[in-house]
Write a sequence for this structure.
């Protein structure tokens, strides 16, 4: 075997390798021994066909292809060692010719990451302010949900519920035809056609009306764009929404044991909303911090890392799509409409950016001597198990204790501690940078509970998706 050409491009080496005859002869003989046992040749018992006859029967190229499965990995490994390279993944191989065998090996090399002056980054989270108007609207929405509808003897107005018979057509073709249908009157709604609610304002029980409406030329449904439906309606009843008042009885109707008064309900909703805002602000703050770290740093990495991350993103997208549809048939129909090239244009840049950010954060952990102890991993496992019913915890424990699971938990904790360190550095006043690895404040667990019958892999995925939602 000899390496005829070596080219280093970024974080990958391109080797052109020619195999020696001796290397191929042994591999060819082993390939013959495998193929002769499963190939039926007329006039010979299976396993007894002489090699020259088998070679003529199946073709020499077929024998070479079979032998390459054995010889290429060994040749790649030897060439990498000969060139004093450190492979960072499985090399990609392209056969150039069969006789003699010459192939190219694309060898991924370790990433090269250089941190910039990250200790000069200064950034603070945005302050959180709870809007009184939003809380008021949230409470109003609950009141709407608990409202009753009472008949009234007056004309229709915005916000009412009208009971009616409806006949309609578009160019003589039946459109919406229903008896006793209840339609909410909402001037901002376009159902069943733009302007329908306006046409009913002022009508009262017993009134009839005929009118024509028009869909915009740029309507979302092309089959209705520019169409002019004709309606004939008869109002049978007008109902008015009767929302419960903002009092203690309304608060008790929410059926939360700790809430007995309206003041307590408002306080609870305000606190919950504030926590949502704080979590969102924290996520955005962390994302901005990493953005600043990436700006001052550089990372060069082999394409196989992007390939793996891209595959993971695609699988996540497929999972989301499958959860959004109602059946396997709908899922297959959805996949049939997916353009792989469009998917790659959408997700591959994300994969590349994720790899870059992950490598730079990993280098920061190394620079700051951040480590995870076995005690921290054990404590995290107990936190995850705490979300599982007590009688099932021991049965689920092995899924968290295996080497692969512990390594994933280690990465979760390491990422958390690295982010805590970055936030600590970014919040320091000039001249007050703490020592490397000195994370003073305890960091709350990112995943407090692990659902029953879920592995740590799914727990990690949930943490990642929560982080994505804040970016």
């Amino acid at each position: 075997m000899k390496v005829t050409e070596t080219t280093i491009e970024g974080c990958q080496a391109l080797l052109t390798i020619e195999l020696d005859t001796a290397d191929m002869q042994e591999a060819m003989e082993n390939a013959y021994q495998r193929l002769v046992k499963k190939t039926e040749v007329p006039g010979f018992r299976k396993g007894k066909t002489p090699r020259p006859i088998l070679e003529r029967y199946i073709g020499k190229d077929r024998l070479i292809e079979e032998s390459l499965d054995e010889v290429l990995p060994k040749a790649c490994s030897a060439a990498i060692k000969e060139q004093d390279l450190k492979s960072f993944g499985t090399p990609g191989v392209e056969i150039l010719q069969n006789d003699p065998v010459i192939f190219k090996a694309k060898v991924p090399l370790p990433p090269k990451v250089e941190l910039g002056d990250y200790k000069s980054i200064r950034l603070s989270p945005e302050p959180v302010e709870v809007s009184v108007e939003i809380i008021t609207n949230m409470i109003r929405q609950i009141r709407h949900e608990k409202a009753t509808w009472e008949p009234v003897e007056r004309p229709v107005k915005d916000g009412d519920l009208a009971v009616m018979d409806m006949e309609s057509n578009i160019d003589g073709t039946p459109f919406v035809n229903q008896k006793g249908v209840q339609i909410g009157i909402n001037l901002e709604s376009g159902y069943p056609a733009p302007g329908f609610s306006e046409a009913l304002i002022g009508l009262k029980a017993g009134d009839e009306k005929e009118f024509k409406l028009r869909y915009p030329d740029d309507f979302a449904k092309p089959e209705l764009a520019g169409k002019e439906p004709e309606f004939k309606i008869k109002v049978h009843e007008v109902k008015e929404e009767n929302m419960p008042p903002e009092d203690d009885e309304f608060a008790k109707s929410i059926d939360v044991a700790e809430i007995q008064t309206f003041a307590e309900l408002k306080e609870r909703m305000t606190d919950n909303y504030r926590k949502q805002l704080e979590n969102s602000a924290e996520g955005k703050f962390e994302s901005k911090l990493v953005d600043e770290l990436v700006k001052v740093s550089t990372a060069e990495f082999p394409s196989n890392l992007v390939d793996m991350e891209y595959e993971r993103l695609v699988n996540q997208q497929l999972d989301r799509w499958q959860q959004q549809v109602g059946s396997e048939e709908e899922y297959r129909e959805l996949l049939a409409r997916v353009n792989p090239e469009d998917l790659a244009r959408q997700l591959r840049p994300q994969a590349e950016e994720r790899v870059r950010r992950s490598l730079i954060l990993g280098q920061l952990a190394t620079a700051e001597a951040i480590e995870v102890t076995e005690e921290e991993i054990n404590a995290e496992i107990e936190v995850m198990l705490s979300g599982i019913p007590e009688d099932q915890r021991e049965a689920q424990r092995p899924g968290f204790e295996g080497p692969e699971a512990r390594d994933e938990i280690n990465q979760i904790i390491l990422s958390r501690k690295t982010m805590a360190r970055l936030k600590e550095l970014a919040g320091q006043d000039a001249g007050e940078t703490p020592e490397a690895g000195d994370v003073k404040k305890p960091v709350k667990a990112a995943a407090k509970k692990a659902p029953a019958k879920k592995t740590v892999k799914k727990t990690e995925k949930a943490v990642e998706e929560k982080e994505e939602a804040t970016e």
